[in-house]
Amino acid sequence: MIDVQTVIDRITSLARKRGVSINQVLRESHLNKSVLDNMKRGSMPSADKLAALADYFGCSVDYLLGRIDTPSLFPDKPAGKKAADAVPALTADEIARLRQLLGG
How far is CA 77 from CA 37, 66, 71, 85, 89, in A? Predict the structure, then answer.
């Protein structure tokens, strides 16, 4: 069974590792402080709110829920990095080719 306290603990731990406050995490994830307040009262956040938090930390929703124990989506990247940081930048030629393939 999934426990909301696990979600709170994992968010708190990831924020600490990143050196940011929970309020900063919520703000930068475009979430209201009521998300944390509701969790403290035992209410599990919706899937989209969990996804926003997971995206912020570069981890999976499964990690936040306690289903897996590895926070990092990318083993060679430390937890706390955004997933986009792990994707290499495309060159102008690659962007042009991608647009061509997509019909744009």
Answer: 31, 20, 10, 9, 16
What mean pLDDT do residues 50-66 have?
94
pLDDT tens, 7-40? 999 999 999 999 999 999 999 999 999 999 999 9
What are the structural domain ranges in the chain? 4-101
What b-and-e string marks burial along 34-59, b requiring 16 or more CB atoms within 10 Å of the CB? ebbeebeeeeebeeebbebbbbbbbb
Please report, in angstroms and rounded to a whole number, the separation of the first and last CA atoms in the chain.
Answer: 46
> CA-CA distance, 52 to 47, in Å (whole number)?
9
pTM of the model: 0.68
